[in-house]
Amino acid sequence: MYSGPVAAHSYAQLASDGVPDSVVILGPNHTGLGSGISMMTKGAWETPLGVVSIDNDLAEQIRTASSIIDEDEAAHLSEHSIEVQLPFLQYLYGESIRFVPICMMMQDLKTCQEIAKSIAERSRGKHVVVVASSDFTHYEPGLVAARKDKAAISTITELDSQKLNELGEAGQVTMCGYGPITVLMELAKLEGTAKPRLLAYHTSGDITNDSSSVVGYAAILFARG
C-alpha cells in the first residue's frame, strides 16, 4: 500500500513499450541467506495472480558470463524485494512473461559493474527490460527523508553510480537496494541509455498522514536511446 502507487508509474510507462522477451529483476538481500549474488535459473514463482516462469536460457547465459553470480535458491526463499514486482508484470503481460531473479547481498561498485556487463552482453539483440527494486530512506522524519532521497535521486538521474554507491555504503541514505540501482545505472552507461527521468516520489507518510517516521519511494525511468 506504500510502494505500490509509486511503482505503478514505472509500469504505466512499460505498458506503452510492447511486450518484452524477458524481464531481469534485481533486488537486495534482506535475509542474509544464500551467496553474495544469488540467481535462480529454472523453475517458476507463484503469486495470487498466477505462475511466472524463469527464463532458463537468459538466466544461464547471464550466470555463465560472470564469475560472481551463483545459482542459489536459498537467498530467494524469504526475500520480498523481487517478488513484489511480479504482480505488476503479470497484470501487464499475463503468464506468458518470463523473468530472471538476481538477489544481491554484495552491492559494491565493482560487483555492480560486473553484473551490468553480464546482463548487457547476454541480452544484446533481445527486448529485455531490467527492473531494480529498492526502497529509499527508511524510518526518518518526512522532511529529512525527502532531503536525503533528493540527493540520492540526483545521483541516479546524473548516472553518478560511484556517488550513489558511496552514499549507500556509508549509510548516508538508507536504501536497501542501492546495489541493484547501481547495476541499472552501469547498464545504462554501457548501452548509451538516455538520461534517467524521475516519474514520481512519495513516502509512506502520504498514505498514513504521519510524517514522524517514513519510508521513501521513487519511480525512475531508464529509457533506451
SSE topology:
Elements: H1 4-14, E1 22-28, E2 37-39, E3 44-47, E4 50-54, H2 56-64, E5 70-71, H3 86-93, E6 98-104, H4 109-123, E7 128-132, E8 138-140, H5 142-157, H6 161-169, H7 178-191, E9 197-203, H8 205-208, E10 214-221
Parallel strand pairs: 1-6, 1-7, 2-5, 4-6
Antiparallel strand pairs: 2-6, 3-4, 8-10, 9-10
Helix pairs in contact: 2-4, 4-7, 6-7
Short note summarizing the structure:
With 225 residues, the chain is an alpha/beta fold. The protein has a single domain (4-221), classed as LigB-like (Protocatechuate 4,5-dioxygenase, Chain B), CATH 3.40.830. It has 8 helices and 10 strands.
Structure report:
This protein has helices at residues 4-14, 56-64, 86-93, 109-123, 142-157, 161-169, 178-191, 205-208; strands at residues 22-28, 37-39, 44-47, 50-54, 70-71, 98-104, 128-132, 138-140, 197-203, 214-221. The chain is α/β, with parallel strands linked by helices and 225 residues long. It has a single domain (4-221), classed as LigB-like (Protocatechuate 4,5-dioxygenase, Chain B, 3-Layer(aba) Sandwich). Strands 1, 2, 3, 4, 5, 6 and 7 form a seven-stranded mixed sheet that branches. A three-stranded antiparallel sheet has the order 8-10-9. Strand 3 (44-47) and strand 4 form a beta hairpin. Helix 2 (56-64) crosses helix 4 (109-123), helix 4 packs across helix 7 (178-191) and helix 6 (161-169) packs antiparallel against helix 7. The radius of gyration is 16 Å and the shape is globular. The model has no long low-confidence stretch (mean pLDDT 94).
